[in-house]
Amino acid sequence: MKEVLLSDLLAGALHRDAEQPLQRQIYDIVRRCVLDHTLLPGQRLPSSRALAADIGVSRITITLAYDRLIAENYLSSRGGSGTFVEHTVERPLTAASPAALQRHRPALSTRGAANGSRRGGLAQHTGAFVPGIADAGLFPFHLWRRLVARHLNKSDLSLAGYAKDGAGFMPLRQAISNYLRISRSVVCEPAQVILTAGTHQSVDLCARLLADPGDAALVESPCHWAFPLVLDAAGLRVHAATLDEHGIALADTTLPRRARLAITSPSHQYPTGVVMPLARRLELLQAARAAGLWVIEDDYDSEFRYDGAPIPSLQGLDTDGRVIYMGTFSKTMFAGLRFSYIVVPPHIADACAQACARLYRPGHLHLQAALADFMNDGHFAQNIKRMRVEYGERQRLLRIALQARAGGLVTLSEARAGLHVYARLDRAVSVARLTAAADEEALVLGVPHFLPEHAARDRNAVVLGYGGVPAARIDDGVARFARALDKAVATARTRAARG
């Protein structure tokens, strides 16, 4: 068969000013023409030298495109004869109709469709009043850059590979263990510390190791939006645990069949701010023992308490080896670091490390080494002290401003801790109308996430985060919040008058 005039085909299809390299464009054009039989099986293509000259590109560009097409069996090279189009499909591929595409397109699984359709988190990550966000502007990035650069060289290439131990870089695990024993009364050795890529992965690991598909997990309601999503994705049935003014109350919760896990935030419940007293903590551990439950303690922002010393951990009271302690660096450093950790009982530490290695293939060892230095050199403790003072002042200013501008319509949570306050609204204020009005004021309000069993419960509250709001801008944010409140109340009254 005569040689095809491939140069003519390419001349009209190549875009020399496009971002996509010419080599990739040539590959895509020839591949598509082979599949739709524009180039017929057995046709001979011009040599790389001739084609390069015809279309005005380098020969290596043509050679690399040909080599890839040959490797993928679209073309074949016959020594001394040239390059030929291979036999690929009996009939040319044609565009299917929309109906045919709908019939034959692979679909997500039921679980995939559910997870893919759920909304989680907030699109905005700074400003008034995005909840749960730390102010990255307070972090000493100049120190962090120097520590990271210290480990970005060829003196220790082991930091450039996968972690030998799935639990993470041992010097960092030692630093975390030392810190938790002192600051949180956590009873642990370095071998019990398992590093993860964020709280989502921490919960996912616990779900996969401590429960089987179809088992049940108890989650406080309201809760952080991610917990039900991650647990459900791991194949667990998620049920609401009763939450009262003292925190999670297993004694008042109907345990579902095959209950295996309970997640709680005893030191500062998200989002309500409830603090679990000692008596309730002991009751929780006794109830968990009786029910055979693992307890996952989420201690996400325990460093930030402004009215006294931090409350000791629930894990420090555990004598059964059933509490998994969960912490994160997203609040104490910066969110994009994506470093968290769990502290597990000694008898499951090896299994957790092996599971991390096999499921997640952890890396980022140079960052883990830098974080170990950051902690061991005292920068971590100094940073927490600075942030505690700053955030304490922001919460104080927020409470004062809210009392002055919206005191009659809003009741705040009592806990002097964390990066947010829980604001219960007057009955005259609709959360839906308030969030809509807040959007007009360029404000972001957190809406508490309740589980379906608690759909009928009082949901008239919003979450106000102050971590990402400089102290000088809090009063302005509250002024806009007060305007949004007035709009929501006025809208409600207008509708009532028309009704």
UniProtKB/TrEMBL annotation:
Region Disordered: start-end pairs: 100-120
Residues in domain HTH gntR-type? 20-88
- Which domain of life, per UniProt? Bacteria
Which molecular function GO terms apply here? Answer: DNA binding; DNA-binding transcription factor activity; pyridoxal phosphate binding; transaminase activity
Transcription: is it a keyword of this entry? Answer: yes
Task: Recite the UniProt keywords alphabetically.
Answer: Aminotransferase, DNA-binding, Pyridoxal phosphate, Transcription, Transcription regulation, Transferase
Indicate the family of this protein.
In the C-terminal section; belongs to the class-I pyridoxal-phosphate-dependent aminotransferase family.
Tell me what this protein is called.
PLP-dependent aminotransferase family protein
